[in-house]
Structures are given as structure tokens and as C-alpha cells.
Design brief:
alpha/beta; globular; 16% strand; 467 residues
């Protein structure tokens, strides 16, 4: 056995650990040199680094710490479940805690979406939904109906099929994808629409593009359209009003299943457990969940399926849905999910989001007076601040060292973590955030943007004349 070694000093911790871990989305040229912040503890909306510095967790983890850090009720539920029964195989047994949680969750689900398949996370939920769609069409004898339509700027995870459906070009470098069955239409981003189009005309154009793609491929071959209600990792892109309902109608017209990826928008981010129907006025065939389902305390995901689809598979002899995971409906995940839902209900957290969400959006939109801020967009407690080189041309301000990363560096020095996406800064704080804490967040972000702007001016990378 290897000899036990003491923990490296803090000053050596970064490079030592980076030599052992391949991080998600890591630039390999910087391996061992990444200047990552090491988090030591967390509480409420705050993180604390190894030096004890207090930081507002602007991204809310990875969109997922919905009820905030350090909720004792969730920790106790997890502990109690581990001590009582840490595991039971979902392949051969069932558990009361999984049954009870599923029964509660479907009460919130729209329409007849009443059947839940639990997964180990968001990516596995996406993959399972896509596999179910193909399985479903095979059972119905429609073996050619396998093509999937997604969108540019979409993100649907890191499994092979999910990543194939993702539409962020920089995520596709040097990887292979299921390009024989996945097709992309353009992003429904109103900020990038032609100036001579109204929002309604732009919406109709994007909806027609979906129908044109279905017709081009052949409705008898298109199995599903997969879409986030708000394209989260693509830059918090909010499609124009009516887009979701109209695309859903197109899918129904052509017998194409609609998969709503609510992995980010679910569990309160927009003030509802499920946002598809309550916020966007449409009822999909399948909904995907993860992230906020346990508030990030332990991994979990879910696929919620329409009973209309399940009923068509009834009385089919010797048919097995041979898809599953060691951790499907894991009892510890179910305990965390149950405690999370308890907390949301007990604290009236959904009503709180409906109260502070508009305030959050309004305060952030004040940043548009800054010279490099082209747009602030979002809904509820998810938002993006996009920086541009020229406000008239709306060109992204991408530099040799991305402006979002520069802003994040300054913000961390001031007490805020933001999620930089090249020319955009994304925020999705825990839903417990108060208006006073929103003021702090926006104040720090404003200062961070101002300092980053000063940097690129001094370096000759941008000037006020760019606008």
C-alpha cells in the first residue's frame, strides 16, 4: 500500500491537486497551472476559500444549490438514511422512500406526466430519455423514427447522445458525435435577431425553421425535439414569447415527441417545481430533472414520462426497458430529494422566488449603462450579462483572454464568484437570496466589470470608440 502522506501546504495545493485531477472542461495546456479557487466550507449563499475569504456563490454551484448551502434538515435526512439503509438495488428491489418521493413529485407535474425513471444525474437523464424514445418507436414498429432535433447554443450533458444534442460549438472540438441521428436548428436568441424583425416575427421564423427541418428529414423519421425552456449554459437565452407553445404545436402536428430539459429551470429557479406548463404554457411529453432535485447535496436525476406514452407500451409481451443505473432511485438521493422538497414547501421558497426574481432581473439590467455590457437577460433567478465590443453591432467581446474570466478574477477579489462563459457572465444564485444580498452581488459585479474594462483599455484591446 502507498505510504500515507500529510496534506500539502495551501501554497502548493493548487498545482499538486491539478496534477492528479482532470477537471471538467479543462484546457489541457494549463494542466497543473490552473488558478482554481479551493473552497473549504459553505453556508447560505456563501462559499469560503482556504484562506477564509467569504464569496457570494453567484452561480449557485452549477445552477443546482437551490435551497442554499448548509441546510441541516437535508444533512440530517442523508445521515439518517445512510445509517438506516445506505443502498438497495433498483434492479431487484424497491424502497418506500423512492415510492413516496415519486408519488409526491408527480403531484407537481403537468398533464399526465406521472411516470418517473430515476437516474444518477442530468446527463444520464438526457441519455435515458433519448433511449426511451427510440425504444418506444421500436416497440410500436416505427424503427425508422429515430432522428433527434436540437438547437444551437443548447446544452444537454456529457453522455454520448446528450453531448451530441448539445449545440455549443466550442464543446465539440476534438470529440465525435452521433451526427447520423442528431440535427440542429439555429438558436432562438432575440439579441441576435435581425434589426428589421419584430420579436413576434423572429419567433415565427424560428418556429417555422423547426417545421422545415422536420419536413426535410421526414416526419416519419423524426422521433423527438429536445429543448431547454431557457438555454442555460448557452448563455441564459430566453426564446421569444410564445416560442415554446408554438414549437410544441408543431411537434404534435407531426407526431414528434417533445422533451423539455428542465434540469436547470426546474425546482424553483423560475418560481415553480416544473416550469414548462406553469411558466411557458405548454405540456411536453417528457420532462428531464436533476440539479435542484437534491439542491446539489448528492447526485440525482429523473425522467418524467407521459402516461399517454406508457399506455401504448402496455400488454406488450416480453418487452424489457433494459436501461438503468446502479444508483437509480438511490435511497440516499431520495432522502436528500425528499428533504429538499420539504424545505421548499416549508419555507414557501417558490413564492420567495416570485418576489425577488423580478428585483434580481431589474437590478442586473441597470448594468447596461456600462460601455461593454450589450445585454442583460434572464428570468427568475437565472441571468446573463453579455459583453460586446460594439453595442450597435452586438459583436461578442472575445479577447485573447476572455473578458468573462477577467471579470470573474476581479469579482473574486471583491467577494463574488461569477460563471464566465467567454464574453458572458452567468449567475444563478441560491433561491434563498435576499434583496439586500442581490444589491451586494450587483454592486460587486459592476465594479468587476469596470475594473476589467480598465484592463483592456490599458492593454489596447478595446476603446470607447469601439462603441
Amino acid at each position: 500500500m502507498p505510504k500515507s502522506t500529510s496534506q500539502p501546504p495551501i501554497k502548493d495545493l493548487k498545482n499538486t491537486l491539478d496534477d492528479r485531477i482532470l477537471h471538467p472542461w479543462q484546457y489541457l495546456e494549463y494542466r497543473g497551472e490552473d488558478d482554481r479557487t479551493f473552497i473549504d466550507k459553505s453556508e447560505g449563499i456563501y462559499l469560503y476559500d482556504k484562506t477564509g475569504k467569504k464569496l457570494i456563490d453567484g452561480p449557485g454551484g452549477m445552477w443546482n444549490v437551490n435551497v442554499g448551502h448548509g441546510v441541516k434538515e437535508i444533512a440530517d435526512a442523508v445521515y439518517n438514511q445512510i445509517t438506516k439503509m445506505p443502498y438497495a438495488s433498483p434492479f431487484t428491489e424497491s424502497t418506500e422512500i423512492a415510492h413516496n418521493y415519486a408519488s409526491r413529485l408527480v403531484q407537481y407535474a403537468p398533464g399526465d406526466l406521472k411516470r418517473i425513471f430515476f437516474t444518477s444525474g442530468g446527463s444520464s437523464a438526457v441519455d435515458s430519455a433519448l433511449r426511451f424514445v427510440m425504444f418506444y418507436n421500436n416497440i410500436l414498429g416505427r424503427k425508422e423514427k429515430k432522428q433527434i432535433i436540437s438547437r444551437n447554443d443548447a446544452y444537454h450533458g456529457s453522455t454520448f447522445l446528450g453531448a451530441s444534442c448539445s449545440g455549443k460549438e466550442r464543446d465539440k472540438n476534438n470529440f465525435d458525435f452521433a451526427s447520423n441521428i442528431v440535427h440542429h436548428i439555429s438558436s432562438p436568441n432575440p439579441f441576435r435577431k435581425p434589426d428589421d424583425l419584430t420579436d413576434e416575427e423572429f419567433c415565427d421564423l424560428k418556429v417555422q425553421e423547426l417545421e422545415n427541418k422536420i419536413i426535410e428529414i421526414g416526419a416519419d423519421k423524426v422521433a423527438a425535439f429536445i429543448a431547454e425552456p431557457i438555454l442555460a449554459s448557452g448563455g441564459v437565452i430566453v426564446p421569444p414569447k410564445g416560442y415554446h407553445k408554438k414549437t410544441h404545436e408543431i411537434c404534435k402536428r407531426h407526431d414528434v415527441l417533445y422533451i423539455s430539459d428542465e434540469i436547470v429551470t426546474g425546482f424553483g429557479r423560475l418560481g415553480h417545481i416544473f416550469a414548462s406548463e406553469n411558466y411557458f404554457d405548454f405540456t411536453p411529453d417528457i420532462i428531464l430533472l436533476a440539479k435542484g432535485i437534491t439542491s446539489g447535496y448528492v447526485p440525482c436525476g429523473a425522467v418524467v414520462i407521459s402516461e399517454r406514452l406508457m399506455s401504448k407500451l402496455d400488454n406488450k409481451e416480453k418487452v424489457i426497458f433494459s436501461n438503468g443505473f446502479t444508483d437509480s432511485g438511490h435511497p440516499v438521493s431520495m432522502a436528500a430529494a425528499t428533504a429538499t422538497l420539504d424545505y421548499i414547501e416549508k419555507t414557501n421558497l417558490l413564492d420567495h422566488v416570485k418576489d425577488v426574481g423580478p428585483y434580481f432581473q431589474a437590478k442586473l439590467r441597470e448594468l447596461t449603462d456600462l460601455p461593454i455590457v450589450g445585454e442583460v437577460r434572464g428570468e427568475g433567478l437565472m441571468a446573463a450579462v453579455e459583453c460586446v465590443g460594439n453595442k450597435d453591432k452586438k459583436d461578442p467581446l472575445n479577447l485573447s483572454y476572455e473578458i468573462g474570466s477577467r471579470i470573474n478574477e476581479h469579482c473574486q477579489q471583491l467577494g463574488l464568484i461569477v460563471r464566465p462563459l467567454f464574453s458572458t457572465c452567468v449567475m444563478s444564485p441560491s433561491l434563498i437570496i435576499t434583496k439586500e444580498q442581490i444589491d451586494d452581488l450587483v454592486s460587486i459585479l459592476r465594479k468587476g466589470i469596470e475594473l476589467a474594462t480598465d484592463d483592456i483599455k490599458k492593454e489596447g484591446l478595446w476603446s470607447a470608440t469601439s462603441n
